[in-house]
């Protein structure tokens, strides 16, 4: 590299999963640039501090990255590692997503204390989730369930399940896999039951736009198919102006040079839902995301979003 090797500081949340992700990036940066000094700095975010209310009621967008981005802008850290599902579609001036490594399994997982799958859970079973997206989709297929607020890091959620606060919970498969807890899963939920969040399973490496050293280094971890897929999903989310307070889901896959994406908008109670899909060349990822968003709006999604925002 043209610039003299310096210490690189990675900023991350302090949860087990966030630290796993930061250490994964740390190890691969060291492989890419032997001799590079890399340190990890834990930063507590607003989303980590407020645990007793739904994310939707406190704004949703950027709750798990705001303080990390501020440290990045101030130069206290050089690279931020995020879960892409937590990253708003619009970034602060001067900051960019420099790389998106290869995605882990993006699906949702259902975990029950009894070992029963979702479709065999008893009526009125208390199921925990903090996501309106998951809530809406669960109620769409099982309106008889009791969906209850579940906040906290993944290990906290599993502990609450084990202690009997819930009869089942829904979490991301990626977190279980990364922490080696896949054996806890009762079942992987198919997309027709629970379509993933935008960017779910993908990590984002954010840096300062003018830091050429970090930009070049981070680019070595970028995975083009994942970046293209996430670009399409985020284009859809931006067009819908969605955040944590709206049940929106999208999942794009890449096969060769073709992109296929499924997306959904639902009412909070799951009664109203519109779904559609689109396919096209990977180079049109952003345009395809916008087009699919507009199709969902035209099919009734606009009315659903107006109803949700009208209540807010």
Describe the model.
The protein has 312 residues and is α/β, with parallel strands linked by helices. It has three domains: 7-101 and 202-222, D-Maltodextrin-Binding Protein, domain 2; 108-189, Periplasmic binding protein-like II (D-Maltodextrin-Binding Protein, domain 2), CATH 3.40.190; 233-311, Double Stranded RNA Binding Domain, CATH 3.30.160. Helix content is 34%, strand content 24%. The chain has nine helices and 13 strands. It has helices at residues 16-32, 46-49, 66-74, 132-141, 154-162, 173-178, 212-219, 224-240, 285-311, and strands at residues 7-12, 37-42, 79-83, 95-99, 108-112, 126-129, 146-149, 168-172, 187-189, 203-208, 248-255, 258-266, 273-281. Strands 2-1-3-10-4 form a five-stranded mixed beta sheet, sandwiched between helices. Strand 12 and strand 13 form a beta hairpin. Helix 8 packs parallel to helix 9 (285-311). The longest helix has 27 residues, at 285-311. The mean pLDDT is 92.
